[in-house]
Amino acid sequence: MPRTPGRIWADGDRDLAEGLMAALRAPQDDREEEQAIAESLTHPLHSYPAKLHPATARILVDIVGQSARRPQPIVDPFCGSGTTLVEIRAAGMRAIGIDLNPLAVLVSRAKTYTVPARRRKEIRDAGHEISGQVLAAGKAARRSGAAAAPIRKPTGFDPNARNRRLASWYAPHVRRELEMIAAALDDLRAHDPELADVLTACLSAILYKVSSRASDTDPTWVEKNVPRGAAARYFAQRVELLFAGLGDFPPGHPAEVFEMDARRMAEVIPDGTAGGVITSPPYAGTYDYAEHQRLRFDFLALRHRQLDEGEIGSRRSFETNAEAQQFWQRALADTLDAIARALAPGATAAIVIGDSVAKTRAVFALDDLRAALTDELVLEAWASQQRPLLGGIEKRVFAERPKAEHIVLLRRR
Ligand SMILES: C[S@@+](CC[C@H](N)C(=O)[O-])C[C@H]1O[C@@H](n2cnc3c(N)ncnc32)[C@H](O)[C@@H]1O
């Protein structure tokens, strides 16, 4: 969510609308408290496009949690990097996440891996051991002029194709360190797959920082001077951050996170059993989650065909498909149907959506959401905040009506 302030307006139940306005305002408040929330728990572990601000998520957990009956879970069916799942767990509630992106699932599981202290210490010990080995191997190789560590060959992936895709993004010494960390995680996976996955999220977290890719959402090649040993040290820092953050959760179980299409959530959530939903679906035509993570998918050897085919509202779908707007509205309607089925009677769903430009047309997300509403869901309150216009097309298509981000609160009858 952007940090720029903008005009806020709201409607519906007054108390709820005020809560939603506070949730929208939270990222722009420069108060130390909001900063501290963003840096708390495991929130800073991993970057992610369109990550929800943790302070917004915390307020929404408070609002939605009021109508939830424990131990009913709170669900985020587009969980991304797990911001809401972290806050749900921090509030001591059961969390269920769903996302089609395998990386989102990996990161969300790691960020909510609330386990007893002894197990948590194993994360730290294994992570530091791997980082230490990589640093020592680098020094030894430099002293002896020994040959570089062999490039890893993940099973089921063509090593030459993988190599071609990765070669230009990493300096050779960085690539060697990363491959050594990944190979050590492969070894660990053979006897402790859960621990290996948690540590893989720490590796994933540094993959763009040490690459020549500008950022998650910007694939431009940029020159970066990454010192020797930096990748291994950054990895150890992420492990430390995760270890410390996980220690601040109240006792409970890790979030259950499923890699699947949100519209099929009935397969894992029996009808009428969710205590609430808090989610932020993709904004129409804005991001390409499949493209944004491609370098990570290639490096970590993550399969992403389901995401390539099932991602809703992607930018590429609007650029290549003349019927993308209809698909988008259908996807929104199917998602709301699935949410209505999952919710217990009287439970609420907070949905964060944003206006956008899809190809060259304005998409007014609140209108689309209202059009997709079923009889089972009542619109209790909503709040909107005006967002700045970026570039010429936005200025043209939003000339008559402001571009805004919205939080909508729905209640299951
Ligand atoms: C706005 S992001 C969520 C960000 C999240 N709130 C966070 O703080 O990181 C939207 C997410 O929807 C996921 N997604 C797109 N199409 C999906 C689908 N059909 N089913 C489930 N997830 C989907 C994307 O992978 C992305 O993680």
Question: Can you describe this structure?
Answer:
By secondary structure, the protein is α/β, with parallel strands linked by helices. The chain has two domains: 268 residues, Vaccinia Virus protein VP39 (Rossmann fold, 3-Layer(aba) Sandwich); 130 residues, no CATH class. Helix content is 47%, strand content 15%. The chain is built from 17 helices and ten strands. The strands form two sheets. The chain has an eight-stranded mixed sheet with strand order 1-9-10-6-5-2-3-4. It has a two-stranded antiparallel ribbon with strand order 7-8. A hairpin with a 2-residue loop joins strand 7 and strand 8. The longest helix is centred in the N-terminal third of the chain and has 28 residues. The protein starts with 7 loop residues before the first strand and ends with a strand. The model has no long low-confidence stretch (mean pLDDT 93). It binds S-adenosylmethionine.
